[in-house]
Amino acid sequence: MGSSSRWVLAAALGAALNGLSATLVRLSHATPSTAAAFxxxxxxxxxxxxxxxxHRAAGPTQRxxxxxxxxxxxxxxxxxxxxxxxxxxxxxxxxxxxIATVLVNAQAIFVGLAGWLLGEPPQRRVLAALPILFGxxxxxxGVLGGGSYGHDPVAGTAFGLAAALAYAVYLITxxxxxxxxxxxxxxxxxxxxxxxxxxxxxGLALGDFQLTPLWPMHGWLLLLAFSGQVAGWILVTLALPRxxxxxxxxxxxxxxxxxxxxxxxxxxxxxxxxxCAGAVLILVVVVWAGRTGPRPASADxxxxxxxxxxxxxSD
Length: 315
Prior knowledge:
By secondary structure, this protein is mostly helical. The chain has 15 helices and no strands. Helix 2 packs antiparallel against helix 11, helix 4 (44-57) runs antiparallel to helix 10 (184-206) and helix 5 crosses helix 10 (184-206).
């Protein structure tokens, strides 16, 4: 097997692990805020080791104490990631693991539009994709016909879109937070800590936070933390900088595609044909709109240098 094939396999495996996240959330039967908080908190020991290794290997400038602005950005990144996870977990409960995972991938369109506000006009493909995306969302929501999967697919679609918007803001703020010279693993560890604390705060404010370590609920959440928040992220981050963008676009489809398969096989989810068609249309539109240019062939010496790019598949 050639080097390129190995990186494709690594990226596909990482995306498949990320695609399992929604199914694990449903299997845990945890409340949305509980799943969001412990997904992050249980990942901290693994991410802490990575942060320590890269911190020790960094130069004096990279090991300098973070400034106030960095701490503020990291807290803000954690807030939006926790908000995304809570909203997405609500969507999972309403419209199913597979459809909810497809919906949150619409963040790619929102990121493209947000660039407009930041002085980066969106690609024509992004603007052209909007009406098609809207039609696909209507199909997924189930308002056009009966037999739709989910106890409230319309609300689930709305929460899924809200999660995608929160995730887009998270990615934009994460990009700003990782522009400092220090290793990105340090920023990731800090923002994940912040997200875990924010998720706990959301749960306490909503009154649905489950602190008691019930079994097997927390067993599923431990597996979620390791698979989606750690292992999947590492594999995808290592592989993506080494693959052409055309290959990347196709490989990242593994995540929502496997989420639909996991939901059907493990949870018995059966979206209607119209919902399935809408989900496929969303994936096609997101990939088509996101193909904006070539990806560099070489990777940074720190494989976790650009977590904002890789984490777009981590929900």
